[in-house]
# Entry
Amino acid sequence: MRENVVRGKLKRGEAVYGMMISEFDNPVIPIILADAGLDFFILDMEHGAFTLTSALHILQMGRLANITPLVRVPDGMYHLIASVLDAGAQGIVVPRVETREVAERSIAAMRYPPLGVRGVYGGKANNDYQPVSLLEYTRHANENILAIIQIESKTAVEHADELLSTPGLDGALVGPWDLASSLGVDPSEPIIDTMTQKIIGIAKRHNVASGIHVGDPARIKHWQAQGMTFLSCLSELEMLRNSAYSLVKALRG
# Structure
């Protein structure tokens, strides 16, 4: 059974680097990201137009390429979480979490009894189509699914202590753009950094990883220096766009 390398590194306090896949429905992308040396990707099913079938193809290619495939689900509901785990996701990112109830419900959907309520269908994409022993498989899955919630609002920051103390939580991912939107300010305003720093401190206190998704590698390195270890930079769409702009500037400059 496949180990979750990213979860293991985070538990040891090591930094991991990844990228969002948000636009292009093509299983080649995980191969490229793995070959480049990234640790994980987050398939964005909150904002991306992916079907469950197309997600399965991308997630399975990620597993074969030995890059940890994660999914950002549209919401922390059982049917949205369990289906992509069965399709091969090794972790879930739940957006817009503001209450302990939602955090607990989301994590329960990721884990099999006695730690959660996930229904069992082993031997599918969730185990590389290999036959499984029930108790061995469920124990292994419970130990390897990465559970991440997103902190994306003023309310979430205010309730961060109760959110990040949720049993079974592995990490919190700050979304600075949505956080800024909830405050009615630009993401560059100092209050966003202040709130992000607060999340780092609370995460350390509860022994969970903290992280951020931004488009600037320099900002990623800044937040890593502050103690963040779950680090997501750019999406494949942004990377293509940035490269196209740079190419045209080089050709016409």
